[in-house]
Specification:
Layout (H helix, E strand, L loop, with lengths): L2 H16 L6 H8 L3 H9 L6 H14 L5 H8 L4 E6 L5 H14 L5 E6 L4 H12 L5 E5 L5 H10 L3 E4 L9 E4 L2 H14 L5 E6 L5 H17 L6 E5 L6 H14 L5 E4 L2 H11 L11 E3 L16 E3 L2 H16 L8 E3 L3 E3 L5
Parallel strand pairs: 1-2, 1-3, 3-4, 4-5, 5-11, 6-7, 6-8, 8-9
Antiparallel strand pairs: 10-12
InterPro entries: Cro/C1-type_HTH, HTH_LacI, LacI/GalR-like_sensor, Lambda_DNA-bd_dom_sf, Peripla_BP_I
Keywords: DNA-binding, Plasmid, Transcription, Transcription regulation
Protein name: LacI family DNA-binding transcriptional regulator
Length: 353
C-alpha cells in the first residue's frame, strides 16, 4: 500500500476512536505518522519541525478534531503562553490600537492575551493584578505608571516581565514604553502662545485615577506659568462623566460661562474637543478666529472635521508592538539592554488652532 493510503487508514482509525472518547496527542501522532514527541514539539513551537511534518500534523489535528490540553502543557513547561493586559477602558479606540499592536506581535509567537480594564480605579487595577497573577501569565502589560503600593509589590513578586506604557516615570516597575504627557501639553501651550492666543483655558473629565489627564493638566499649568508668570491659569474640569462628544459640548459651555473672554480651549482628549468643535457653528463661534480648540490623541475624527482639529498624535499601535517585543525577549530568556523606550509625540497643527 502506498504511503498516502497508509496515512488515510491511520486517519480513519483515529476518527473512529475519537467518536467514542477524547482525542489524545497519541491519536494525532498516529494519524500524522510521527511520534507523540514530534506532535508535542510542533504544537509548542511550530518552527521546531519541518514544513512537511508540520503540515501533516496540522491536518491530523483537523481530521481528529484534537483540542490541546493547555493546562497540562503549562504544568509541564512552567509556561502559560499568555500575557495579561490591563487598560483603563475598553471603549477608547486609541487603547484598542495599542492592544492590536500588542497582539500583532504576540499571537504569531503562540501567546494569547487576556484583557482587563480598570475604569481608572486603582483598587480595580490591584484586584486585576491579583486575579491575573493566579492564572500565572508569562508577562504583564499595563497602561499607566502609577499604582498602589500593593499593586507594585504584587507585580514584582510575580517574577515575570512587566511593561508599563502610555506615560513616563523615572522609576518603572520593570520596563517602560511611553511618552511624557506633561511635555506634550507644554508643546500645545507653546504653540498657542506663539500664534498669539493669550487667554487659554484647560478643560476635561478628570477622573480620580486618570493620572495621564493629571499630567496633561500639570503640563498646561507649568507652560502657562512660564508664559504668563503670576497669572492664574483657567481650569474648568469635572470629576466624572462619560468620555463622549456631548460631554465636550457641556465643558465648552462651562468654559464660556466662567471665562467668557477665553480665546483658546485646550481639551484633555480629542473626543471632547471634537464635540465642542462641532457645536461651535451652532453657538455662533468662529474657529479659530473667535476661539481656538485643541485636543489630544489624534483620533480618526480629528482630521475629518472642518476645520481640522489641532492635536497631539501618539504612536499608540507602536507602543503595543514595542511593548510586546520587550516582553517576548524576556519571556524567551533573552536580555533587554534598554528597559525604557520613549516613543515621543507629535503636535499636529490643523485649522482649529
Amino acid at each position: 500500500m502506498s504511503d498516502e493510503g497508509q496515512l488515510s487508514l491511520r486517519k480513519a482509525e483515529s476518527r473512529r476512536r475519537s467518536a467514542t472518547r477524547a482525542v489524545t496527542m497519541a491519536d494525532v501522532a498516529q494519524a500524522a505518522g510521527v511520534s507523540t514527541q514530534t506532535v508535542s514539539r510542533a504544537l509548542r513551537d511550530p518552527r521546531s519541525v519541518g514544513p512537511d511534518t508540520l503540515a501533516r500534523i496540522e491536518e491530523a489535528v483537523r481530521e481528529t478534531r484534537y483540542v490541546q490540553n493547555l493546562a497540562a502543557s503549562h504544568l509541564a513547561s512552567n509556561r502559560s503562553m499568555t500575557v495579561a493586559a490591563i487598560i483603563p477602558t475598553i471603549s477608547a479606540s486609541i487603547f484598542a490600537e495599542t492592544i492590536q499592536g500588542l497582539t500583532d506581535v504576540l499571537l504569531p509567537e503562540g501567546y494569547q492575551v487576556f484583557l482587563g480594564h480598570t475604569d481608572y480605579m486603582a483598587g480595580r487595577e490591584e484586584s486585576l493584578v491579583r486575579s491575573f497573577s493566579g492564572r500565572r501569565p508569562d508577562g504583564f502589560f499595563i497602561i499607566g505608571t502609577r499604582h498602589t503600593q500593593e499593586t507594585t509589590a504584587l507585580l514584582k513578586r510575580t517574577g515575570v516581565p512587566v511593561v508599563e506604557s502610555w506615560s513616563w516615570t523615572n522609576r518603572p516597575v520593570d520596563m517602560l514604553v511611553g511618552f511624557s504627557n506633561h511635555a506634550a501639553l507644554m508643546s500645545v501651550v507653546d504653540h498657542l502662545v506663539g500664534r498669539g492666543y493669550r487667554r487659554l483655558a484647560f478643560t476635561g473629565v478628570m477622573k480620580p485615577g486618570d493620572h495621564r489627564a493629571k499630567e496633561r493638566l500639570k503640563g498646561f499649568q507649568d507652560a502657562h506659568e512660564r508664559h504668563f508668570p503670576g497669572v492664574t491659569p483657567r481650569v474648568v474640569t469635572v470629576a466624572s462623566g462619560p468620555m463622549v462628544m456631548a460631554t465636550g459640548v457641556e465643558l465648552l459651555k462651562l468654559v464660556r460661562e466662567q471665562h467668557p473672554d477665553t480665546d483658546a480651549v485646550v481639551f484633555v482628549s480629542d473626543v471632547l474637543a471634537s464635540g465642542a468643535l462641532l457645536a461651535c457653528s451652532g453657538m455662533g463661534i468662529s474657529v479659530p478666529k473667535d476661539l481656538a480648540i485643541t485636543g489630544f490623541g489624534n483620533y480618526d475624527i480629528a482630521g475629518q472635521l472642518t476645520p481640522g482639529l489641532t492635536t497631539i498624535a501618539i504612536a499608540s499601535r507602536k507602543i503595543g508592538m514595542e511593548s510586546a517585543n520587550l516582553l517576548l525577549r524576556r519571556m524567551q530568556g533573552g536580555e533587554v539592554e534598554n528597559r525604557t523606550q520613549d516613543v515621543g509625540f507629535e503636535l499636529l497643527v490643523r485649522g482649529s488652532a
